Amino acid sequence: MDEIYDQDVLEEEPSRPTPEMRPLPATLRRGAPLVPVDTTGGRALAAVIGILTFLAALCAGGAELVAASSAEWRAAVTREVTIQIRPNAQRPIEADVERAAALARAVPGVESAQPFTQADSERLLEPWLGTGLDFSDLPVPRLIVLQLADEARPDFTELREQLRNQVPGASLDDHALWVSRLSTMANTVVGIGLALVALVLAAAALAVIFATRGAMAGSREVVEVLHFVGANDDYIAREFQRRFFRLGLRGSIVGAAAALLLTILFGLLAQAWRASPAGDQIEALFGSFSIGWRGYAIIVLIAFMVSAIAGIVSRVTVRRFLSDNGV
Asked: Which residues fall within 8 angstroms of residue 62, CB to CB, at 6 or more apart?
């Protein structure tokens, strides 16, 4: 009797679906990708990657702009050397100026020595003291600007000694201190820019990690079915890598294109303002405000770096997820 009752119960209880009887998830149907990217989460991740790429490209472009402008500044400063002659009531200033210029022209590597006239020297003080002042009672020093030949590095030790002996009150400034400070400032700015680029790339990697883990958690059933039909972890990780690489490439291209357009726009605005005082200040600081072909190449490289990081980080995250959770 008990056997008959048990048999009736077994006949009435519905059979549980086995893996062979379960319906396939939507992502495993014919023509459907394993990791869909045209979802709300995928579009949000692409937007985040685009914004981060835009910021990284701007930081890299700014660092390249500062580096190029600094190189131009150093080249211009190192090609000029200044001799300053302070007035001495016991000596004729004009004779001292001509003597110092003659000594400078005799130094190998010096292309020219151009003395400033009294009017030129007084005009240099106008931005600080104003116009219309009488400088006759002021001991305004006279300047001599030396232009050096390209790639020339003259030794001014002998010239300094000659000026000390033959032109009292004369001093030579090779701008080495200014060049050192300028190099330090430029290198600091470039270093900060590169550090910001690294931080933005790290933020992009973290965003991909969280998105990949979320996608893995939502695709757990899909992964189980794939394992059941014989797919290994490397195949699953490769599929995630391919999808997230495309997702990262789509977002990074948009971000890099926006950075390129903004850089070109700033260059056009700088050219339009070139004749204005603000434009003169911008050109003095950043040159023509053009990052050149190397800057554009760096922005394009960053776009591909972001997409490559998205793919690699996604693959590593999937392998770790599968290993840690035993899926």
From this structure: 193
Strand, coil or helix: what is 254?
A: helix
For residue 304, which amino acid is it? F
Question: Could you give the CA distance from residue 298 to residue 157 in angstroms, rounded to a whole number?
Answer: 43
Model pTM above 0.90: no
* Backbone torsions φ then ψ of 145, nearest 5 degrees: -100, 125
How far apart CA 292 and CA 68 sit, in angstroms, is 9
CA–CA separation, 321 and 162 (whole Å): 77
- What single DSSP character describes residue 293? H
Unique residue bearing structure tokens 């039909």: 229
Beta bridge partners of 82: 145, 173
At 10, the pLDDT band (50, 70, 90 cuts) reads very low
- DSSP assignment, residue 85? E
Residue 145, helix vs strand vs coil: strand
Report the amino acid identity of residue 184: T
pLDDT of residue 132: 66
125: number of Cβ within 10 Å: 14
Integer Cα distance of 324 and 327 in angstroms? 8
The pair phi, psi for residue 112, each rounded to 5°, is -155, 155
Q: Tell me: the pLDDT tens digits for 187-231?
A: 898 899 899 999 999 999 999 888 888 877 776 776 777 667 666
DSSP states along 220-246: HHHHHHHHHTT--HHHHHHHHHHHHHH
**Residues facing residue 172 across a β-bridge:** 83
The neighbour count for residue 161, using CB atoms within 10 Å, is 10
**Rounded Cα–Cα distance for residues 58 and 223 (Å):** 40
Q: Cβ–Cβ contacts within 10 Å for residue 228, how many? A: 11
Q: Give phi and psi for 232, each to the nearest 5.
A: -95, 175
